[in-house]
Amino acid sequence: MSDLKPAETSNVNSSGLSDNAAAGIAYITIIPAIVFLIIEPFKRSSYVRFHAWQSIFFFIAWAVIDILVGLVQHIVPSAVFLTMTVLQLVGLAIFIVWLIVFIGAFGGKQIKLPVIGDLAARQAER
Q: What are the sequence ranges of the domains in the chain?
C-alpha cells in the first residue's frame, strides 16, 4: 500500500479540509454543495466547483423525476402499482449513481454524469 500515490486534488486547504473531502461532502445534500461554491478556498478549486455543481444538478434531476412519477400516479390512478415499482427502481438507480460519484469524489476522481456532468463542467469553468 505504500506505493499508492495520493490524488492530485488531495491537498489540504487552510480550512483543514482537502479538496477530495470537500468534493465528496458536496454530494451529501445540496446545502454543502452551495456552501462550497461560496466560501474560500473551495470556490477557487475547479475540482470542488465541478462536484458541487454536479451535486446540485443531480439533486434537481432527482426531484424532477420524483415529481414526474408522482404526477403520473395522480393522473392515472390505475397506474399506482406500476409507478410505485418504477419509482422504487428509479430510486435505487439514483442511489447507486449517487454512491458512485460520492465515493469517486473522495477518491479524487471526476466522474462526469451524462448531461449533468457537462453542465457542471461548464459552470465550474466560470
A: 19-125
